[in-house]
């Protein structure tokens, strides 16, 4: 049985890169159950670890962990009971709609990842081709579904056919299958103790070390892009892609900065005082260098991605510092 909630009061938390976290927080955390978006997003561990997807402008610099699995990770860390269902590619969606109607009679339902270009309420939705997104189903009517999109659409309607086209998620690489749907069953008293933050740090380090070992992950992802800067500079699609993925990366780095500051407060251990300070300095430098790149790209500066080589070195050193902190707390 899901949470009984006949009327939802969406809580818009600002436009961030974490539509998956925004959707879940909007659906299930009301005014008396607020969890800061930065905290929940760090608990998904999505901000930790990067990878490069060749020739995909939306994913030239992407998160290492699929947000679909990151949501599960955050809920499990916080010991929040939940359900997630999905179907194999190629199903017709009738079973998914049937279950969605059942779940919507009991609580909101988070849908996604889905094809963002399938959302008919978006202006020029074709601009979002191959972009993944998450929304909230509020109520299932005979021929349409009431939707809340926490990135600016408090209440819109999708026909069943339009919903199925978007919800199938067949035009994006994210997701464990088609028609992924998720709901929270209960909101327990949340614990933000040392044990919780240790677990988040362990999984964040896992993302970082695994991505570093991949040919197109970690620092390698940055170096590949640096070596392709002439190609990117001459391809309008890839160039526009960089002006999307870099601000996204900056925002995720900002989230990790808040996480490191929180670790300093919870684990003020003298042996890693220098590691904390050096890690924060690296984070700030990465933010500055990425910001300079955006300016260079927009102003058509030659070798505008050269900073990526410096950021790659910083990425490797950053992982070493995270490991040092993880070993001592």
Q: How many H/I helices? A: 11
Weakly predicted, low-confidence segments: 1-14
Query: What's the domain count?
Result: 2
DSSP, total strands: 8
User: Quick check: average pLDDT?
Assistant: 93
Question: Measured on Cα atoms, how large is the radius of gyration?
Answer: 20 Å
The share of residues in helices is: 40-55%
Strand order of the largest sheet: 3-8-4-5-6-7
Please outline the major beta sheet. Answer: 6 strands, antiparallel
Pairing-aware structural class of the strands and helices? alpha+beta
In whole angstroms, the N-to-C terminal distance is: 39 Å
Strand content: 5-15%
Shape summary: globular
State the order of secondary-structure elements, H for helix, E for strand: HHEEHEHEEEEHEHHHHHH
Any overview of this molecule?
Strands 3-8-4-5-6-7 form a six-stranded antiparallel beta sheet, sandwiched between helices. The protein has 329 residues and is an alpha+beta fold. Helix 2 packs across helix 3 (67-77) and helix 10 packs antiparallel against helix 11. It is built from eleven helices and eight strands. The chain has two domains: 1-34 and 82-184; 194-328, Up-down Bundle (de novo design (two linked rop proteins)), CATH 1.20.1440. The two termini are 39 Å apart.
Element layout with pairings:
Layout: H1 19-28, H2 37-44, E1 50-51, E2 62-63, H3 67-77, E3 82-87, H4 94-104, E4 109-115, E5 132-140, E6 144-149, E7 153-159, H5 160-167, E8 178-184, H6 194-212, H7 218-227, H8 229-233, H9 236-266, H10 273-298, H11 307-328
Antiparallel strand pairs: 1-2, 3-8, 4-5, 4-8, 5-6, 6-7
Helix pairs in contact: 2-3, 2-9, 6-11, 7-11, 9-10, 10-11
């Amino acid at each position: 049985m899901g949470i009984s909630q006949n009327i939802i009061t969406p809580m818009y938390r600002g436009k961030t890169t974490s539509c998956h976290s925004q959707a879940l927080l909007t659906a299930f955390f009301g005014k008396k159950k607020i969890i800061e978006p930065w905290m929940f997003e760090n608990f998904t561990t999505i901000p930790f670890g990067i990878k490069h997807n060749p020739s995909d402008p939306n994913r030239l610099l992407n998160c290492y962990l699929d947000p679909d699995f990151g949501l599960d990770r955050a809920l499990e860390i916080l010991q929040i009971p939940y359900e997630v269902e999905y179907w194999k590619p190629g199903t017709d969606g009738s079973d998914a709609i049937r279950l969605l109607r059942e779940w919507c009679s009991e609580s909101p339902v988070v849908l996604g990842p889905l094809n963002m270009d399938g959302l008919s309420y978006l202006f020029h939705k074709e601009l979002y081709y191959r972009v993944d997104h998450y929304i909230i189903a509020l109520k299932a009517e005979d021929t349409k579904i009431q939707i809340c999109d926490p990135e600016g659409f408090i209440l819109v309607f999708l026909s069943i056919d339009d919903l199925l086209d978007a919800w199938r998620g067949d035009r994006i690489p994210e997701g464990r299958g088609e028609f992924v749907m998720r709901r929270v069953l209960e909101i327990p008293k949340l614990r933000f103790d040392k044990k919780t933050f240790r677990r988040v740090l362990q999984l964040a380090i896992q993302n970082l070390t695994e991505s570093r070992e991949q040919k197109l992950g970690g620092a390698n992802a940055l170096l590949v892009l640096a070596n392709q800067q002439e190609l990117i500079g001459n391809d309008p699609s890839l160039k526009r892609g960089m002006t999307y993925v870099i601000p996204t990366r900056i925002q995720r780095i900002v989230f990790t900065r808040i996480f490191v500051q929180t670790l300093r407060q919870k684990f003020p251990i003298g042996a890693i005082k220098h590691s904390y300070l050096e890690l924060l300095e690296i984070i700030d430098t990465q933010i500055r260098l990425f910001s300079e790149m955006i300016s260079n790209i927009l102003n058509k500066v030659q070798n505008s991605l050269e900073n990526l080589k410096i950021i790659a070195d910083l990425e490797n050193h950053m992982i070493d510092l995270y490991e040092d902190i993880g070993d001592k707390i």
